[in-house]
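Table S7 (text form). Paired inputs.
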Amino acid sequence: MFLHKRLLLIGLSVVVAATTACSSSGGAARARDTLVVYTGQAGDYQLNFNPYAPTQIEGPGTIYEPLFFYNIAKDGPPKPMLGTEFGWNADGTELSVTLRDGVTWSDGEKFTAEDVKFTLDMVAKTPAVNKTGFKGTTTAVDDTHVVVKFPEPSYMDGPQVLGQLWIVPEHVWKNYATPATEVNATPVGTGPFQLGEFKAQSFTLKANPKYWGGEPALKQVRYLSLSGNQAGVDALKAGSIDWQTGPVPDIKDVEKNYPGYKVITLPLNQVALFTCSNAQLGCQGAQTDPAVRQAIYHGMNRTQINSLAFQNTASEMSPGYTLQPRDASLISGKLADRMAPMNADTAESDKILTAAGYAKGADGIYAKDGKPLALSVKVVAGWTDYITALETLAQQLLKIGIKITPQQLSWNEWADARGRGQFELLIDSVEQGPAPDPYYTYSYFFSTATTAPVGQAANPNFSRYSNATVDAALAELKKTDKGDPSRQQHYDAIQVELEKSMPYIPMLTGGVPTEYNDKAFTGWPTKDDLYAFPAVWKRPDASQVYAKLKPAGS
């Protein structure tokens, strides 16, 4: 409690300071070339711009660039970044990439194919940073050409290698013995921005004057650390931030309540209870029992959670983790529930727990072997929508004999616990990949290749889930190009296993609301022009927005 109060005071002091620094013409009306953003950071920033570290605070896209930008908001060809062209050989085992010439690192060194080779080799041999399960062998043909060879057809690796690996400078990173844990305090990148000033409550990125794409019109981005969603709302009202992604009261009337600001809401976040599910990898607690996870799934009243926590901006979610409505054609007909039920089925929860050997005690809580079904669930202090969701869920689950206790942590503590598997339950959202295909969500969050024993950093299979059927289906999907009708059988196999196992217990598909200062800056993504997914914390999409924004009137 003391920590939460301290962070609240810090957040409010930052809001006041930022507001004081604004021109007297008012927040939404001011014209300037510094964009102030709030990404949801609660508590002090820890200096780390390592794009491969789970605790990095910024860098992908802004400082460190991928070869191409894939837009998950709209299906279309990837945008050339450090790469200009690419192509596969006939059997999908060799990827050839042409690189942009004339690019320099922010320290003045020349960018070449050797930097790309170094980065890809580093990822391939370092499991802790290998979020994509990349296994290719890279050859630098000359300064502007690389060839990546795979041991088997690997079409689906294309968007991951090209769009989700952040190219780092060999002349700097060759000195890092442990790239996964390196604290990258003085980042050297090719991106449109460089690190400016850093403080625990805020830091700035400044425009790179030698950026290959031209110096951005937006000269500076200032990131604020506040105490949580309510502080973000207060800052929005004060006009002291220009861009945030998160809930605000009465979200349908943003333009009326926050003059000069607009809102765009798009479905993306598959909100779930993450469970440390795998006892063989060191997970401890009742949540390691699939029956407990299934009981929680059926005990949720998602309609009530949507109303109380998300202002009815969320929508149904499939237990097979296809993103709806984007992946409507891929949802499996073999699922027991095509969509997670919106209302609780307490009888089903009781049936599952009783069959698994649990019995209710006098206090109404189920127990087994003398251990009551009581679990803690971690959440970031200040994430008011998620906190409300958990408080609501806690009341719902008491009706099925399960006690959950929300535990609020700073973002840094929460992220560290999530990465190391030091939790029973936590609330978060399952990410989408670099292209609009559920394969990437599956390969990131459900693959044995992307997890690790408790105590070691998983990236990002935080549940420690391991399933031979899922791994085999992922291996087959990787070999087949998008659009091949044979892919559906593998999607079916994965979805059926996820529904049975539920290492991430489905809640709702969160509508992601983003509020932005349309009066002070132009060039924002709109539903008619979704050139990037418009969430301030979505990387590298945010960098695409920064690069396109201009101060109003410029």
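Next pair, protein 2 of 2.
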Amino acid sequence: MRYHTLLCRNSVIRMKLIDWLGIRSSIHRKIFIAFMLVMLLPTTLISVSTYYFSIDLLKRKVSESFLDNLAYNKNIIGMEFKQFEQIADYILYNSDIQKVLSPSFKSPSIQGYYDLQGAQQSLNNFTMQAFAVSNVASIQIFGDNGIILFTGASSDIYPNDEKFKEMSWYKQAVQTDQPQFRFGSLNEDSDGLVGSGSGYNPSMIRTFRNNATLEKLGVIYIKIRSDLFDSLFEDSNMKKAGKFVILDDNGQIVYHPDKSMLLKAFPGVDKLREQQGDHGSFITQDDQLMVYYHIERYGWWLTDSIPLSELLKDNKIIFNITIAVVLVCFILSGVIWYFVASGIVQPIKKLAFVMRSVKEDGLAVKSEYTGKDEIGLLSSSFNYMIEKIQELISRMVEEQAKKKDMEYQSLQAQINPHFLYNTLNSIRWMAMIQKADNIKEMVEALGRLLANSTSKSEAMITIEEELAIVKDYIKIQEVKYSDKFHVDFDIDPKLLKVKCVKFILQPFIENAIFHGIEPKSGTGCIRIQLKLSGNVAEITVFDDGVGMDVEQIMCEGHDKGNGTRFNGIGIKNVDERLRLTYGDIYGVTITSVKGQFTSVTIRFPVDADFEAGGPK
């Protein structure tokens, strides 16, 4: 009930709004409002679509720019850390160092002393060159046999203590032959998880093995300069933006312009790990455009981000300008469309005034608008309609006068058949008195034929009644022609009660006698057949007379489906009455061969009573 009340209230408000705008009573306002809506809706849609498209385009362009910078920085990192791996590879394959780290090496001996000094000298010679071209701070080798080799600043030396083998970094290093990079302090007794220390010391750790036997000999520890990333990205656009961040495989920050953020947990690392592919972008929960690149070899992430508010601050200006342009265009279009609508509506108003004046002045009005547009066409059509109405009224008056005259003549003509019928009745009584039976029968048949033509006014009779008329006509002609012809009937008795158009057989019997049998030498035969074909009654009148040419009864170019129409008056009359009554697919078909025969077929549908199982 409440919903119905609310619906009714909304309908009332809508109707009041329509009345207030005057849409119902003014075509001018209809056109004006329609034009304004057509102007406003697409313009608004285009403006909004363009605005959001520009935002999306800006995001893509910024993402592509950031990704290009990240890809550049990724290559720099890859090349730099590849140097660290190459340094470790050289040291691993040095025979002097391999020798002193062997389990069979005996350091207390004199030879062992010289071998140890040679290994240390090889390490020093190599690292002097490595330090000059790389960001290596120091190199320390921890042998499983207790030998420790070191090069670099003395402050970086790790004490020769078994405690270092219990550190998490050492356990991680011996589990794989791949280089392991870490950024926490070497003294950090932890599992290396995110945020597990405050000392920032980049380093690389790798297992040291025998070249021949692949036996584990120890661990090589390369300490990297702490200002590595600052020197790498000194001229990078990412650094200048202040948003460039590098994460290690544990998700802790290993590079950030704000040094206080180093080794802390990155808040969006879980979202990063959900991304597909090694690079891309997404919007964070705090409305930041985050762009990332993943270094698969080390499991690191390079990220850069920018707040959407900062990214889209110029777009707000564009949006405001767009709104202003739309409003200006809307106002200018409103003024233009108002005058355009006025130019369209004024001729319509004038034409409407002329149409309304028909009530007062009748048909003695005329539109004076003669423009070449649709309104001018409507005006000329209105004038034409008025002229035609005047002609129709004049014709109707004339036809009414003719109709009254025809009714008088029809009443007058009814006297003639009545007088003829009474005269025939007198002749019949004279024939009976004089015992002229042939004259009596002929007069009786003619009387019945005349009575059927005048007594019944309906257009439809039964086939049985139609055959009775035909038989009376045949009886009259038999008296005239004696034994010139005989008639055979092949009638389906079930069809006798079917109704048909009145007087459809007599013209064809007459043609068969006069044009078929009479010119023929000898006796002729006429056969009348009645049968049912589907739901169509077919009456065929066949005679074996002299036949005829089609041109005798047909003429070309009329409205039958086969392009022809009957020319004989009686035949034409029957054919047209059948088509008008039942449709163009029914009517009369004539087949004739000159000198042999003529066959006429009359087709019409049976009535509904017969189809329902009426007459049997």
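The mean pLDDT is 76.
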